[in-house]
Amino acid sequence: MTAAPTPARVASALVTAVTTTAWYASPDLVRSRRARAGVKAALCVVVMAAGVPEFRRSRVAAREAAEAQGLPTSREVLEGLSASRKAALAAAAVVLLGGSTALTVVGERWMFRRGERRAAAGVPWAHTRAAVPVGLVTAALALVPDPSDARPDAT
Fold this sequence. Notes:
Shape: globular
Largest sheet: none
Radius of gyration: 20 Å
Mean pLDDT: 90
Helix content: over 70%
């Protein structure tokens, strides 16, 4: 049985839902492309600032769990790798990041063009109608517990 989400995780999910919805609904609210870029930059800052406490907590918890079980920390694992393995890991990370970024750009462009077509067809709040479900999905995903959050005594 999994534990209920912590208040911090719920707050993070709420921030994620609101900022994601605002991100995708922004063409309905801000027509200027330049102003929309500023709004989206501000939304990025909000999401990153909101995620820092949870990130720090998870790093401390992972380090403590590794030490308690006698496992090496990620830093110790990386220090023990050869230069060629480090290079291979870095290359894999670059490829994954590049692929993820490309898929994100393709998806966002599709959503924007779809919203613009719907707006041109006279659908009110065309971008916002797609933004709300996307925001709800991101909130739900933010509430999914990390596997590292599982208690060792749970069966």
